[in-house]
Write a structure and sequence with these properties.
Helices cover 29% and strands 19% of the residues. By secondary structure, it is of the alpha/beta class.
Length: 72
């Protein structure tokens, strides 16, 4: 199963994304699970770098819409 962490800027889409998976009949296959920062114990103001590291350490796919590539 793919574990996807929704960054704070896309958290509101959790139900929409899960609904899309369900509407095409894939829910029964348990292919992907959408989780928010709060659900995994990370604060909304956690730095991008910390969130990325957390995802790497815990095997999560990061879903975000605000990457600006300003950080080295």
């Amino acid at each position: 199963m793919i574990k996807a962490l929704l960054d704070h800027d896309v958290t509101g889409f959790q139900q929409l994304l899960a609904g899309a998976i369900e509407s095409i009949g894939w829910r029964e296959y348990e292919l992907i699970e959408f989780t928010t920062l709060v659900e995994v114990g990370l604060a909304q103001d956690t730095s991008d770098r910390e969130i990325w590291r957390w995802c790497q350490l815990n095997g999560y796919l990061l879903v975000t819409a605000n990457r600006n590539q300003k950080d080295p």
